[in-house]
Amino acid sequence: MKVIAKFLALFILMSSASVTYAEENTDVFYDDFSGLNLDSSKWLTAEKNWGGTIVENGQTVDYNGGVIAENVSLQNGKLFFTGCGDLYIGAKRGINRNGTYRENGKRCGGAIATKDYFASGSYEISAKIAPELGCCSAMWTFEYEEDYSGDTLKVTNHEIDIEFPGRDENNELSLSHCLCTTWVGEGEDEHKTASPYCKNQADGKFHTYRFDWHTGDDGETKRVEYYFDDELIYTSYDHIPTNAGRLWLGLWFPRYWAGTPDFETTNFEIDYVKITPFHEKGDKEQNESYPNGGWRKQNIVRGDVNNDGSVDLRDIIMIEKREVNGYFANADVNDDEKTDSKDSYIILKSLV
Ligand SMILES: [Ca+2]
Ligand SMILES: [Ca+2]
Ligand SMILES: [Ca+2]
């Protein structure tokens, strides 16, 4: 009984602390990724494939295995995007562009996006990028429209990117450089990419990635300023988006410009995300053509092993009795492709 009373006291303390915080920050989006699961009131989990095709054994196939919900997990207050490389032989299966599952999980990553749309503002992400070449650690805003009213299809693509790896002075792949791109469309003359030097970002430490997006206002020129660890590394004044977009975070496998993923798995980790809107006059409403496509319909609920909608002791007992069956991803809360007492312990901790 003493232990329960202690847990109860701790629980009350924690709940009252979070209420105070929420009241002070009505306009700011913030998530520090505590708990076992993504906050589904804030985030969508992507399940889709992009990045082009290659010819393999005479067949045209998608180059990568897309992004899947199984590669998105929360542990110890961090959000993990797992990337499965060419040497991966585990149980996960990637997804093709046509929605079918692949034979293996190679070149398969994970991605999420905010449910809400944001325009001008300061976007700050504390992250530890994947230290491997062959995959891309990415943070980006995105708004996409297709207009069929004229003779030719007109695509609007308002986007701001932070992508690793970048390119060094000799055009070699580099994790000490970052691709910073601003977009308003998909044409060659509708985006601008720079690859500034930003010190070694694959040093195994968390760094703060921030961009201040100005859509234009009295005394504010349209521009995007990129700050890493509070140091200005680049400013773009060209092709600056104005339409509100979703903020995406993820790890994926580009076909030609990131290198070869000759590893089993790697991780892109996020500690927190904070968006502080500026509400500048240049902000425009979003008008996305496909806002509801490409998301995981039924979320994986980590810890809810028996899939009854709640995480409790019954779920822990199922793991201890090795009865996880069809809900493997729900039970494998630490994403090590095993279900054992390590998972039960994490779930137990989450209940107090
Ligand atoms: Ca955190
Ligand atoms: Ca349950
Ligand atoms: Ca596990």
Keywords:
single chain; about 350 residues; mainly beta; Jelly Rolls; Type 1 dockerin domain; 2 domains; eight-stranded antiparallel sheet; seven-stranded antiparallel sheet; globular; binds calcium ion
Give a verbal description of the structure.
The protein folds into 2 domains: 252 residues, Sandwich (Jelly Rolls), CATH 2.60.120; 50 residues, Type 1 dockerin domain (Orthogonal Bundle). Helices cover 13% and strands 32% of the residues. It has 4 helices and 19 strands. Strands 1, 5, 6, 8, 15, 16, 17 and 19 form an 8-stranded antiparallel sheet that branches. A hairpin with an 8-residue loop joins strand 15 and strand 16. About 4% of the residues have low confidence. It binds calcium ion (3 copies). One calcium ion (CA) binds next to helix 4.
| Class from helix and strand fractions | mainly beta
Low-pLDDT stretches: 10-22
Q: Would you tell me the overall average pLDDT?
A: 93
Tally of domains: 2
In short:
This protein has 352 residues and is mainly β. Helix content is 13%, strand content 32%.
Topology (SSEs and partners):
Layout: H1 2-24, E1 29-31, E2 43-45, E3 53-56, E4 59-62, E5 72-75, E6 78-84, E7 110-114, E8 121-128, E9 136-147, E10 154-164, E11 166-167, E12 173-174, E13 179-183, E14 191-194, E15 207-214, E16 223-228, E17 231-236, E18 246-252, E19 265-277, H2 313-320, H3 328-331, H4 341-350
Antiparallel strand pairs: 1-19, 2-7, 3-4, 5-6, 6-19, 7-18, 8-15, 8-19, 9-10, 9-18, 10-13, 11-12, 13-14, 15-16, 16-17
The structure holds calcium ion (3 copies).
The site of one calcium ion has 7 residues, from helix 4.
